[in-house]
Design a protein that fits this description.
The chain is α/β, with parallel strands linked by helices. Helix content is 39%, strand content 16%. It is built from 23 helices and 27 strands. The strands form nine sheets. Strands 7, 8, 9, 10, 11, 12 and 13 form a seven-stranded mixed β-sheet that branches. Strands 6-5-14-16 form a four-stranded antiparallel β-sheet. Strands 15-23-22 form a three-stranded parallel β-sheet, with no helix packed on it. Helix 13 links the parallel strand 22 and strand 23. The longest helix is centred in the C-terminal third of the chain and has 28 residues. One zinc ion (ZN) binds next to loops.
């Protein structure tokens, strides 16, 4: 019999042909119909962020796995809504644009800069979409959305206007985290901490009305001396009792500041006396507030010292530090300097030390929501469960409201106009997209003073204000009530581990503020892709792997199988071409098996109920293992952990089915003389193989589709249901170990022996005199054929 499958090995060139057939059939279309509204499965897909080339291989793996969620949910019988969007707002885009076109954002017309950003984004976006399509992602590409579209931005503005009207937004001038490189306010969630070396400078301070006494105060920020408004000691530190209420004289600046007490001082740090400046760190902010000190603005928004620093004004903070420390030394004000490691807050994006300066910003109330978010987030199922802790820790750490305004260009504009006369902010009606920096307001008069002159807000939103409403955008919140009713809350939020305290948290907050409910009931959290040594990939290290050539070389299915089988869900995974190419071997094995099986007729019964009485023991045994495999795979699929099914499928297919079972029944499938025995084997072979394909389909959608369509049905495998398990042959599971042991024993025995006729090492086909052990009697006939066994007694008889 000639195999129906002629191609000798799996060639991933076929993937593009299969992709076209899916597109042609519109296979993954989502249609809301009356008869399917009860099993809608909505994925709140993360809109990938195009911030430069190449796209990260870890991100490609991330989307491949999100696709596995979609595909396995479809095979569970759900109607899956799998939207895809591109996140196009924000700072990295601006930085990429500045670099690509060699321009500076603030040195060109805003409108022109925005145009450059758009065209830079278009190129990156089409590359990403191309990669995702080539990976076999079954999302709705026909209607992909962009977060910088008029539709999206007007929804972001609408949600802001709604929250403003609810009284949840306020404008305040207060000390805020500021990145001088990015030129903008940043939220706590965007700060990382690194232990960096610095000098702790011990300085002499004079004491008011005393010519000789000096106090020594240590500081890691001597450059902020001019913004010092007090020195503080711990109220219980008896060394300083005599100085309470006195004043010290600042070195270099000769200004007097009071000595006050505050519980935050650690007596063991430095000399136990601390200078408080506006602002060295968040503790300074707290002390200024607690002791009602008058703030001195030390830095402007470009990171330069203000006139308050005279004669050190108009210097970058680092240069100011150099000069001030030099003058302190030369003036004899330094007692000593100590090298220390300081836990320094850095801007997550530019890695610049964060400054704290007073800024006029918009704040969204979040502190008062922490208790309710803690309560309702208990109802979110996390996959894996352990990553819920990241959210819980963050909820415990939130200490200020969320500053949502940014001094950037490429973002959603804050829809506010200020009255030129009385400064009252006025907001337009929601529903449209507004650009106040270049548009006249859609109203005539200030409601407070009647003036007709306004100035539009120039700031934009923190991009998380946009991306935190993806569940609302995809479910057509405020745009299509019926669609919204059936698609919100979403079913699952898949996302990366490193953005739990930003994307996940902000979505939780924003959606709750707008809808009084959870945005989704499940959160799926994947680890990072790291390099083969376990190091984080970054452009500066030069260890970023471009996914596109890898996919071209190995094909999407190999890449996907690697991604699923590499590590358990939630753990970081190592990316190397070597491990990806290893997955190729499994696909070759699968193809070879399919090709072998394609030589034989397919019993119709494989898709019907099993007629148990006509099945032979060997076949019952492999079916028992098959049903165990189905059970294990379901366990994995039910918790969206594709590591489990991928490894179980590979193990079963390779180590039991191909190595043992197929060899045991090879003689029977060719033997027409006993139709019952032959049919039993054909049944089990095809039952196993078709089930393997169905189980593997969400992970390797291409090869399974090709084999399925060639062997079993013209209807796509991706329209089938996941197979069910049963316990019909459970008793046979106990033989597995014995069968494997016996076969291996015979193979080893043959390897060690010499064929008496040829004088060469025996081949596996050579006869051997051995009896089948008693406990495997049921399988005797198949084992005898397989190994060419002769009973010792038979040989003696001859
Ligand atoms: Zn920065
Ligand atoms: Zn006014």
């Amino acid at each position: 019999m000639e195999p129906k499958i002629t191609l000798k090995s799996w060639n991933h060139i076929l993937e593009s042909k299969i992709l076209k057939s899916w597109e042609h059939e519109d296979l993954y279309n989502f249609n809301l119909k009356e008869n399917n509204i009860n099993n809608i499965f909505v994925i709140d897909t993360p809109p990938p962020y195009p911030s430069g080339r190449p796209w990260h291989i870890g991100a490609a793996a991330h989307y491949a796995q999100i696709d596995m969620i979609a595909r396995s949910a479809r095979m569970e019988g759900n109607v899956v809504m799998f939207p895809i969007g591109i996140d196009r707002n924000g700072l990295p885009v601006e930085i990429y644009t500045e670099r690509k076109y060699k321009v500076r954002m603030r040195q060109m017309e805003r409108e022109k800069f925005l145009d450059l950003c758009k065209s830079a984004l278009d190129d990156l976006e089409s590359e990403m979409i191309n990669i995702m399509k080539n990976l076999g992602i079954s999302a709705n590409f026909k209607e992909y959305y962009r977060t910088d579209s008029v539709e999206f931005r007007s929804l972001t503005q609408k949600t802001f206007i709604d929250l403003w009207n609810k009284g949840l937004v306020y404008i305040s001038n207060r000390p805020n985290n500021y990145c001088t490189d990015c030129g903008t306010t940043i939220a706590d969630a965007e700060i990382i901490y690194e232990d960096l070396p610095t000098n702790l400078v011990y300085m002499y301070f004079g004491i008011e009305n005393s010519n000789t006494d000096k106090l020594i105060i240590a500081s890691t920020r001597p450059e902020l001396l001019f913004a010092c408004q007090a020195v503080i000691v711990n109220p219980k530190d008896d060394r300083y009792y005599p100085f309470h209420g006195k004043k010290v004289i600042l070195p270099l600046f000769n200004r007097k500041v009071p000595i006050l007490v505050h519980h935050s001082v650690k007596p063991e740090f430095g000399t136990g006396m601390v200078m408080v400046c506006s602002y060295g760190d968040q503790n300074d902010v707290q002390v200024f507030r607690d002791l009602n000190l008058k703030e001195i603005v030390a830095l402007d928004q470009n990171g330069y010292t203000t006139d308050e620093a005279k004669p050190y004004q108009n210097l970058m903070i680092n240069n100011a530090r150099e000069k001030i420390v030099k003058d302190l030394r030369e003036g004899g004000f330094v007692e000593r300097e100590e090298k220390v490691v300081h836990r320094t807050p850095l801007c997550e994006r530019s890695k610049t030390p964060v400054q704290i300066i007073p800024l006029h910003d918009y704040y969204l109330k979040q502190l008062e929501y922490v208790p309710v978010l803690k309560a309702i987030s208990k109802n979110i199922c996390f996959y894996p469960e352990i990553h819920k802790q990241i959210l819980n820790n963050w909820l415990d750490a939130i200490s200020i409201d969320w500053p949502i305004s940014r001094r950037r260009f490429y973002g959603t504009e804050i829809p506010v106009w200020f009255c030129n006369k009385c400064q009252t902010p006025t907001l337009p009606d929601s529903g449209q997209y507004y650009q106040p920096w270049k548009e006249r307001p859609p109203f005539d008069r200030c409601s407070k003073c009647g003036s007709t002159e306004f100035t539009g807000e120039e700031k934009t939103f923190d991009t998380w204000m946009d991306s935190s409403i993806t569940p609302l955008f995809i479910s057509k919140f405020s745009r299509d009530a019926k669609f919204y009713e059936h698609t919100y809350p979403c079913t699952i939020r898949p996302q990366a581990k490193d953005i739990i305290r930003t994307w996940l948290y902000y979505t939780l907050l924003r959606c709750y503020q707008l809808t009084d409910t959870l945005a989704w009931n499940n959160a799926w959290v994947m680890g990072y892709g790291v390099d083969e040594k376990g190091k984080k990939m970054s452009k500066s290290k030069g260890n970023v792997i471009d996914p596109f050539p890898v996919i071209q070389q190995f094909g999407a299915d190999t890449f996907r199988f690697w991604s699923a089988s590499e590590t358990n869900l939630g753990q970081d995974f190592r990316c190397s071409e070597q491990s990806i190419s290893n997955s190729q071997k499994f696909l070759s094995k699968l193809w070879n098996l399919g090709r072998f099986l394609s030589s034989f007729p397919i019993p119709k019964e494989i898709f019907a109920d099993i007629d148990v009485k006509n099945i032979l023991p060997t076949d019952k045994w492999i079916l028992s293992e098959l049903f165990r495999l189905v059970k294990n795979c379901s366990k994995g699929y039910n918790i969206f952990n594709f590591f489990i099914p991928s490894n179980h499928i590979r193990d079963f297919t390779w180590n039991l089915f191909a190595s043992h079972y197929v060899e045991m029944v090879k003689s029977r499938v060719y033997d027409d003389s006993d139709p019952t025995a032959q049919n039993s084997a054909l049944y089990a072979l095809h039952k196993c193989f078709s089930t393997i394909l169905l189980l593997l389909a969400p992970i390797c959608p291409f090869i399974t589709e090709e084999l399925w369509k060639t062997l079993y049905s013209s209807r796509s495998i991706h329209l089938q249901k996941r197979p069910l398990t049963n316990d019909f042959f459970k008793d046979f599971e106990k033989f597995t170990e014995k069968i494997v042991e016996f076969n291996s024993f015979v193979w080893n025995k043959k390897k060690e022996s010499i064929n008496p006729h040829t004088g060469k090492p025996a081949s596996l086909k050579d006869p051997i005199s051995l009896s089948v052990p008693l406990e495997l009697q049921e399988f005797e006939k198949d084992l005898q054929y397989m190994h060419n066994l002769h009973n010792i007694n038979d040989i003696n008889d001859n």
